[in-house]
From TrEMBL:
InterPro entries: Bact_Beta-galactosidase, Beta-gal/glucu_dom_sf, Galactose-bd-like_sf, GH, Glyco_hydro_2_cat, Glyco_hydro_2_N, Ig-like_fold, Ig-like_GH2. It is an enzyme of class 3 (hydrolase). Residues 232-337 form the Glycoside hydrolase family 2 immunoglobulin-like beta-sandwich domain. This is beta-galactosidase. It comes from Mucilaginibacter lappiensis. Its EC number is 3.2.1.23. The keyword Cell division does not apply.
Length: 958
């Protein structure tokens, strides 16, 4: 019996393989019984002068050729890029058009733009696509539709010489009824696609159309076919799950094109790979022209509930049969889930959840348009999950169906937007055609994708502008809350906040706000990890999602250039690389990437943990997990636009502080003296599958070698779902730490671990050689000391450095926020420090190659010194990483010989308020110890006037 079963199984698998191969062959063939695949070669012609309609091109055969699905760019069609290319999108870094340093990149044959990725070809305007089809006799008296899964974007259709209509959705398929025109026989289908902003302006920076990300392409992608249906057919199925009553309410829209009343039978059967006990539910109904049939479908005693932890989906098979034996059917994916809220927190199936999201901005360098296949989206979402995320916000665009299907399978919560960023030249609510378009587009979106359990949230789009936007968006939210309870609705991403929204989106809860510069939490307040957003959100009654947190930049990865082998090229990276090499710093590119990357991660960790520490918080949306290639090049991702990591953090490491379960330490500070008691409250954000029972949180403190210095437990407990769940307080004396040390605090709970690096310095330092002169100016005494062969430490006060020597460079602790081009050099404009940790100058000041919390004090009490103003070959002890656009050679600390003596110049103030600045006191001691050592032997000789010319001088006392 077992052998027979095995043979049957083998036969079944072989048959399955054969059918799969046949299916693949059939998919690539021209026609099936009731479907004609239109992919492949089409006739094509550009209509740059808009002559096609008056000249009736639809009556003729177009001259060129193109392959669809695809765009003009993927087919190598369009115009070469030049200084007059009519881009779609705001260009804030417009100096490219006139700045002499970009002159070489404005020359024909060497066009390189810095503000976004550069397409091989570009075209904006009308283009015509044409294909001859043969309609089989079996299609007589059928309803025939032309299906274009995604077009960019306005399409006008002709069959032979008859115009059928126009569609302009940016988010859903363009479907045309061609029943009356496609009689059996040969016909010519002509499609005019226009990618210009026309009747309605969604906003030139909207990611649905903009060259900032997916490009303003012209073409048709995804599925492209003709389909024949019976004259009585299923037009739409919308399923409304009710998990409380364990049922689904189905709204089945039936279209009757016979002109007669037809008796029909509708059968529903839900199926899942895990459930086989569900039964068919039938309903007989007489159908006139258009009818919506409501059917209640019971889901059994224990329906599978969909969530991020159990992404169980069902397929509802809807079959229609008429008395004349005409049949039609529709298979619809859905999930038994309730995405809602309780108070100020989101819930999934009545359990609290926390949105850990990133933006999806439609950046696809290979093609210049989004993928429509399931495999691509499964890859993207799997990577997002590996970094601890459970949520994607689609910024001013809506993805194709394959994205929803992938999210359904993997358990991702989607926020969808109606293809608009009505700002910078566009507005909402002011009576423009966009106002109606948003309603039309949102209805198309919900009809097309509303059944997917992953479709959880929707708003109009991004950061709106308009005098009447509040009234308009208040009405928009009310409209959708009344019409469809399956999703949560808000006004727009960023603003405005209204009482009628299901949730709030606001940029207020984050550690760096727009235009805060050096006054933000991370740049303006001493390092700590105990703040949260309670005072910000307490005035609101609904869940709050922090809008576009992070935006922390990293240096360009020039190895990435070779990955751009599709239609978009990283010419911006080529410009930045040229600039770095021009400054003689090309050999430091990899070091800049790694060091700035580590600082970037530190900033993201601080942002994310602040959100997780906030009681009753809804979640966050990063900008972003991967890079944003436009708006002047915003390298804000730990992943590149291809969703590949850059070598300085893995998903496993990132998910320690970004996950469903994250231990949190409310550190009151990051810098300690060894006469203090290390006192740290410990809590947890626990949004896992279920309550954790009888767990024992553990903590340890290790030194830089990995040796455990202290450890302990916080007591066995049960941990419910939620956050700000207190686990206990760590109290540890630090008096056994006799030398300066970097320590790592780790807290682990039920297999989840998070860690923080802190620094401990001796409360009492030994005396140093008094012969080393510490001064903030090279006065006569300092000059005499140097002339006599002495040692001088010049420590400049913040603001003393001359502007042209680096004093005009706004440095801070964090990396660059978004980028300098789009923010008009909002500070800080640097990316942290780079140094050699083994340099003897750091023997008493433990450091890594990059900025960590112990450098916060230095970066906020200093100016960066332009090293070329001292010497072209000056190699500093501590380097500051400049913005990649300017790529200046900058330093904080360097050494040299002056006269007969030896000098260290510090752009950091190491004299003021040292009793309140333990890091500065320790760094000063470490530099003095180094200067007192025989290893202090600088090679470079610098004229004393070069040093004096760095800073603002004061008259010498007489």
């Amino acid at each position: 019996m077992r052998k027979l079963t095995l043979l049957l199984l083998i036969a079944f698998l072989q048959l399955t393989l054969i059918n799969a191969v046949k299916g693949q062959l059939k998919r690539s063939s021209v026609t099936s019984d009731y479907k004609i695949d239109l992919s492949g070669k089409w006739a094509f012609q550009v209509d740059s002068l808009d002559q096609g309609i008056p000249e009736k091109w639809y009556k003729n055969t177009l001259r060129g050729k193109i392959i669809l699905p695809g765009s003009m760019t993927t087919n190598g069609l369009g115009n070469d890029i030049n200084v007059n290319t009519p881009w779609t999108g705001s260009i804030e870094d417009s100096t490219w058009f006139r700045n002499p340093e970009y002159e070489q990149y404005r020359q024909p044959g060497n066009i390189k733009i810095p503000f976004w990725l550069q397409p091989d070809k570009y075209y904006k305007g009308a283009a015509w696509y044409q294909k001859k089809v043969t309609i089989p006799a079996t299609w007589s008296k059928k309803h025939i539709e032309l299906y274009i899964e995604r077009s960019h974007w306005e399409t006008i259709i002709w069959v032979d010489d008859k115009q059928i209509g126009m569609q302009n959705s940016l988010s859903t398929a363009h479907v045309f009824d061609l029943s009356n025109e496609l009689s059996p026989g040969e016909h010519q289908i002509t499609i005019r696609v226009d990618n210009r902003i026309k009747d309605f302006n969604v906003g030139q920076n909207s990611h649905s159309i903009s060259d900032h990300t997916q490009t303003n392409w012209n073409g048709m992608i995804g599925q492209l076919f003709l389909k024949a249906k019976p004259l009585v057919y299923i037009d739409d199925v919308q399923l409304y799950p009710d998990i409380k009553n364990k049922l689904v309410k189905a709204h089945v829209q039936i279209i009757n094109r016979t002109g007669k009343i037809v008796s029909t039978s509708i059968n529903l059967l839900a199926a899942s790979s895990k459930v086989t006990t569900l039964k068919t539910v039938s309903k007989k109904v007489s159908v006139a022209k258009d009818t919506v049939v409501e059917i209640t479908y019971p889901m059994g005693e224990k329906p599978l509930l969909w969530s991020e932890f159990s992404p169980d989906v069902y397929k509802m098979q809807v079959r229609l049969a008429t008395a004349a034996n005409e049949k039609d059917e529709r298979s619809v994916t859905f999930g038994m889930r309730s995405f809602s809220s309780q108070g100020t927190q989101f819930t999934i199936n009545n359990k609290p959840t926390f949105l850990r999201g990133t933006l999806e901005c439609a950046a696809y360098p290979k093609t210049g348009f989004p993928p429509t296949d399931l495999q691509s989206w499964m890859r993207i979402l799997t990577i997002c999950r590996s970094y601890g995320l459970n949520h994607l916000r689609f910024h001013s665009w809506c993805p194709p169906d394959a994205a929803f299907e992938a999210a359904d399978r993997l358990g991702f919560y989607f926020q969808i937007e109606c293809a608009s960023w009505a700002n910078q030249g566009a507005s909402i609510g002011d009576g423009n055609p966009l106002d109606q378009y948003i309603y039309d587009e949102s209805n198309r979106i919900v009809k097309a994708y509303g059944n997917h359990p992953s479709f959880c949230m929707m708003n109009y789009g991004n950061e709106p502008n308009g005098k009447n936007l509040v009234k308009y968006l208040t009405d928009f939210v009310a409209y959708w809350k009344k019409k469809d309870p399956r999703h949560l609705y808000s006004t727009g991403s960023g603003w405005p906040i209204i009482s009628g929204s299901d949730y709030n989106s606001t940029p207020d809860p984050r550690i760096q706000g727009w235009e805060q510069g050096l006054k933000s939490i991370i740049n303006g307040e001493s390092p700590r990890a105990d703040y949260d957003w309670t005072n910000i959100i307490k005035k609101w009654q609904h869940p709050t999602v922090s809008h576009e947190i992070g935006q922390w930049c990293v240096y360009p990865d020039f190895k990435e250039i070779s990955q751009y082998d599709g239609v978009l090229k990283a010419k911006n990276f080529e410009i930045f690389h040229d600039q770095l090499k021009k400054q003689g710093l090309g050999n430091l590119a990899e070091d800049f990437l790694f060091a700035s990357g580590k600082l970037q991660v530190l900033c993201y960790k601080a942002d994310i943990e602040a959100a997780l520490r906030t009681p009753g918080f809804g979640g966050f949306q990063l900008l972003g997990l991967n890079d944003f290639p436009g708006q002047g090049t915003a390298l804000v991702g730990v992943l590149n636009p291809f969703w590949r990591d850059k070598g300085y953090i893995t998903g496993k490491e990132y998910s320690q502080f970004c996950n469903a379960i994250v231990p949190l330490a409310r550190l009151p500070k990051m810098i300690y003296l060894n006469n203090e008691i290390f006192t740290v409250p410990v809590e947890i954000a626990q949004f896992g599958r279920q309550e954790l029972s009888s767990v024992t949180p553990k903590w340890s403190i290790k030194n830089d070698k990995g040796d455990v210095l202290f450890r302990g437990e916080l007591g066995t407990t049960n941990i419910p779902l939620g956050n700000t769940i207190k686990l206990g307080v760590i109290k540890q004396a630090l008096n056994s730490i006799t030398k300066p040390a970097k320590l790592t605090l780790a807290v682990s709970v039920a297999g989840y671990e998070n860690s923080w690096e802190v620094f401990v310095y001796p409360a009492v330092l030994p005396k140093v050689n008094q012969e080393i002169m510490v001064t903030n100016t090279i006065d006569n005494k300092a000059a005499e000391t140097l002339n006599k062969g002495g040692k001088v430490l010049l420590t400049l006060k913040k603001g003393a450095l001359k502007g042209d020597k680096g004093g005009n460079i706004a440095i801070g602790f964090s990396s660059i926020f978004w980028n300098t081009a789009w923010t008009h050099s909002q500070p800080p404009v640097t990316l942290g420090i780079l140094c050699d940790p083994q340099h003897p100058a750091f023997k008493e000041f433990p450091t890594q190659r990059y900025s960590n919390w112990q450098w916060w004090d230095a970066m906020t009490h200093s100016n960066a010194i332009r090293l070329d103003s001292v010497a072209t070959d000056l190699q500093p002890i501590v380097r500051v990483i400049d913005d990649w656009v300017t790529a200046q050679s900058l330093g904080l600390i360097f050494e040299c010989r002056v006269g007969n003596g030896k000098l260290i110049v510090s752009g950091i103030d190491l004299q003021s308020d040292l009793d309140k600045r333990p890091e500065a006191r320790q760094l000063l001691y470490s530099l003095q110890s180094y200067m007192n050592n025989d290893k202090f032997e600088p090679n470079l000789k610098v004229d004393i006037q070069k040093i004096r010319s760095l800073y603002q001088t004061r008259p010498e006392p007489k």
